[in-house]
Each structure stands twice: as C-alpha cells, then as structure tokens.
Prior knowledge:
Elements: E1 5-10, E2 13-20, E3 28-29, H1 34-38, E4 58-61, E5 66-69, E6 72-73, H2 74-80, H3 83-92, H4 98-109, H5 118-123, H6 131-145, H7 155-181, H8 194-203, H9 214-226, H10 234-243, H11 249-260, H12 268-279, H13 285-293, H14 314-329, H15 336-349, H16 352-356, H17 363-374, H18 381-401
Antiparallel strand pairs: 1-2, 2-3, 4-5, 5-6
Helix pairs in contact: 3-9, 3-18, 6-7, 6-11, 7-8, 7-18, 8-9, 9-14, 9-17, 9-18, 10-11, 10-18, 11-18, 12-15, 12-17, 14-17
The structure holds carboxymethyl coenzyme *A.
Amino acid sequence: MSAKTGTIKIGDKSVEMPVRSGTIGPDVVDIGKLYGATGAFTYDPGFLSTAACESKITYIDGDEGVLLHRGYAIEELAGQGDFLETCYLLLYGELPTAAQKSDFDYRVTRHTMVHDQMTRFYQGFRRDAHPMAVMVGAVGALAAFYHDSTDITDPTQRMIASMRMIAKMPTLAAMAYKYNVGQPFVYPKNDLDYASNFLRMCFAVPCEEYRINPVIARALDRIFILHADHEQNASTSTVRLAGSTGANPFACIAAGIAALWGPAHGGANEICLQMLAEIGTVDRIPQFIARAKDKNDPFKLMGFGHRVYKNFDPRAKIMHQTCHEVLKELGIKDDPLLDVAMELEKIALNDEYFIERKLYPNVDFYSGITLKAMGFPTSMFTVLFAVARTVGWIAQWKEMIEDPNQKIGRPRQLYTGSPRRDYLQPDKR
Ligand code: CMC
C-alpha cells in the first residue's frame, strides 16, 4: 500500500484510493477498486487523465518538451547513436556494449529477407493500392509464414518474432513501394546499415549501380530514431489492447499499423504535404490560417499541435535541423512547397490563436518535407513511420506480456441508449 492516498466520495459512499508515484512524472490514483466500493466507473474519453498501464520504456513531459527512452534524452540518442542502438535500448532496457551492438546488428541483418512466397502475396494487391493498406495485410500475413513465432508464451519465440519484425519491416515497406511504382523488388543487402539498406531497396534498380548518399542515410536513420517510440499513443495502445487478448505479435503490429494510418496520428505527415500542395503559394496561407481558426470549418493545420506536447515537440527541433541538412545536401532551394512550409511555420508561430493554444509544428511537419526531398512519394510517409515505430510497439508489447499483473484490456462505458423495453411484433411497431 502506498503512503499517499486520495479519497473519492460518490453520494454517501467514500473510498480511499492508493496514489502511486512513478520515478518521474505525475502521480496516479489507482482506481482499480472504485467500482467494487462505490458501484461507479470513471469516464475519460480519449484517456485525458488515465494511465492505462505501468511502463519503464519511454517518458514524456509535454509541458517541458522532454522525451526520454529508458532515461536517455532523444536529443542525445539522435545526435550520437544510431537506430539499431535505440532499438536495442528500447527492447533490452540498456544501451548495448560494443560487442552486444555488433551481435544485435548481425542478428537483425540476418533476418531481413522475407519468405519468397510473399512476392506472390503482394501481387494480389492492385498496383494503386495505398502502401499502408499493403503493410496492414503483409505484416498480418507474417503470422501465416512464421508459425513458430506465434507462441507468445515462449520468451525465445517472442524475441525471435521481435527481431523478425524489426528486420523485415524495411523489406516489406520497400516492396510495397516497388510494387506501387511497378519496379522489381530489390533484395536486402546485409552489409549495409539499416537506413542505407532501406534506401537501396527503395531506390535501386537492376540496370544501374545505386550509390548511397551518407548524409541522406544518416538523416533517414535519425528520422527512424525520432519515431521509434512515443509511450502510450493511439497505435501503441492499440498494440497493447490487441496483445492483451493473447493475439500473436504479427497480428498486434498489424493492428498498430492500421491505427497509425489515421490522419490525426501517423497519417498526418502525408496529409500535411497534401495540405501544403493545396495551399500552393505563400499568398494563399492567410485564407488557410483563417479556416483553421474557424469553429464551423473542420479544417485543421496538419503538422501542428500535439496531444501531449504543449511546448515545442523535441523531435520537431531535431527534425527541423535534419530537414535543412537534407535540403542543403540535395541543393533544393526553390521548392514552392518548401516556401509555403517555411512561411506557414513563421505565420503560425506568431499568430495569437496558435500561441494561446500552444500549437507548434510537430515532428510530422518537418519529416514530411524531408522525406519528399529524399524522393519518397507522400503515400510512403506513414509507412516509414511504421517501419520506425515497429520497435516501440514490440518493446511495449513484450513489456505487457511479461507483466505479471497483465489482464485483458476491457474498458467500461457510460451507457446512454434505451433502457430495457419489450419486443413488439412488426404489426405493433
Ligand atoms: N489546427 C488548428 N487548430 C487546432 C489544431 C490544428 N492543427 N490542433 C488543435 N487545434 C485547436 C482545437 O480546435 C482546440 O481549439 P479550442 O480550444 O478553441 O476548441 C485546441 O486547439 C485544442 O485542441 P484539441 O483538439 O483539444 O487537441 P488534442 O490534444 O485533442 O489533439 C491533435 C491533438 C494532434 C490530434 C491535433 O492537434 C491535430 O489534429 N493536429 C493535426 C494533426 C497532426 O498533425 N497530427 C500529428 C500528431 S504528431 C505525430 C503523432 O504522434 O502521431
């Protein structure tokens, strides 16, 4: 029993609830016994005040703009490490030693190929299928290819499934892209680092040598680090909820990909670019800003705002810098879309409506522009997000499965439908 408690009084019933403290961050009131003691549920749509689990993986302080993975600041991980190091950290809880790192890199790169029959699975999709639709199907289908990894009670198989997904996700994503553009699939090349291998699988063609640009590869690796995990967001919560039923890990990650696709979540990077294209020229920005402020217009400035960060998103700061590095490297100066993006950023940051509501450009605002400059079509943006987030989903899924207090997720509801009534024969209705 924790020392701190809180009392909840409902009508004439009152109950004392334990208050639990984390290592950092707000305390939580453990309301697990509320219903038994008072007969009442809590009501919190959107989980604005509800912690759905205990976790040791990622910490966010939205007011201060802080993001820590296992205690390490995102700025340090993105500035000094590489993506596979962050993967190791998220999965195992500690940064790897040099030997652990090379062993981990080796194991990931030895799982990059997918079953060759997968190619026929892809051919079942229409060529113009959205690559996120293909990813939901292809990742879910992995359960049909790797039966051995679906035994969630076996810790070794859980780790093999984790390695398989981290390793195969870039291959599946690149295949979704190649299928869409009508080019042959490019097999992974295991002596390349994670980001370079992905770039090659996306952009190499059999008729010429593909040269990796190290600045672009490093920028992509950084994008992967920045998107690796973000505590209990919508897609991660989806993975945890699906996993709480005992569903296999491939099915759970497919569910996470489906949730990520939404425009309020990972889909924002794609929609943001579409919005910039729709705005078209700098002189049209004020009319879109006016629409964003209009309560009667559902339009929102995509790439702005965040549920948790009510100060600057620390990922956006790093992404802003990476974005400029990539544009400089590629010599992109006069891109009208970029002009619109930079002007929009300036105007929104100085507008009372956005200042009052603490609406800043989020990570998707800059990552979209960067990915476009790298040559990815907008439909691939959320796919890249999914590639990076896979490790976060898996780490959170494993943590949940390994938690002795884990139960099936089963939210309650406030029922506002009709009370019980009698069934009437059709002639009496
Ligand atoms: N443009 C204009 N107004 C906005 C925006 C926006 N992008 N975002 C929030 N607002 C307004 C909102 O209308 C509300 O105004 P009021 O107080 O007058 O009613 C106020 O700001 C608070 O917004 P909210 O809807 O309560 O905020 P939320 O925490 O529920 O939503 C959000 C967060 C990210 C869903 C929302 O800001 C949004 O839809 N942004 C655009 C989509 C986007 O870029 N999403 C990517 C998020 S970052 C990547 C990820 O983690 O997935």
